[in-house]
């Protein structure tokens, strides 16, 4: 019984450490034309968005929307990959839960 409580406590500590590390890991995604830049943390929180002023005209609205969607998608995919790799470094979810008999 107490071993499972210790395992739960260890799991909570590892999860807290992972969450902190993910929050401090910043990924940058940039459009092919270098006019849009997004920074996102590995815990999927947008940190900053830069849009070159040349995009801020009505005639480029559709292009801006398209590029922004692509850059955000790229940033999210990269952040998810970083999070997955960090989880693997910790032994993966199976290893974390293995001691709990799950």
TrEMBL record:
Superkingdom field: Bacteria
What is an example of a GO molecular function annotated in this UniProt entry? DNA binding
The alphabetized UniProt keywords are: DNA-binding
Q: Which Pfam families match?
A: YbaB_DNA_bd
Indicate what this protein is called per its UniProt record.
YbaB/EbfC family DNA-binding protein
Give the organism the record lists.
Answer: candidate division CPR3 bacterium
